[in-house]
Amino acid sequence: MRKYTRKELKNMVALGMAEDVTRANNEDYEKIIKREDYLSQVGYSSGVYGCDGMLLKGYKTGTYYAVTSRTSAIYIFG
After folding, report:
1. How far apart are CA 48 and CA 42, in angstroms?
2. Exposure on the CB side of residue 69, measured as CA atoms within 13 A
């Protein structure tokens, strides 16, 4: 697992390399899991107060999903 900066994660989203799931809720999580079966964590971002971002990869499609700030999505997807 690789450590990223939040800026790197945000750039991945801006370039279209990853789908932003920062504001995702349980409903969005269920849709993604139906599509992917499961997600594996590829990387993370950490700050003063712990984990503040993560990069996930879908099993079926290989799509990358990024959480770019310290929100409840970290706990939903983690």
Report:
1. 21
2. 4
The model carries a pTM of: 0.93
The pLDDT tens digits of the residues spanning 61-72 come to 999 999 999 999
Q: Which of 46, 47, 54, 48 is nearest to 72 (CA)?
A: 54
Residue 1 gets which letter from DSSP? -
Burial 32-71 (b: 16+ CB within 10 A, else e): beeebeebeebbbbeeeeeebbbbbbbeeeebbbbbbebe
Extended strands (E) in 16-61: 19-20, 39-47, 50-58
Placement of tokens 């800026």 in the chain: 7
- Domain count for the chain, please give it: 1
Contact 9, 53 (CB under 8 A): yes
Its domain, for residue 15, covers: 2-77
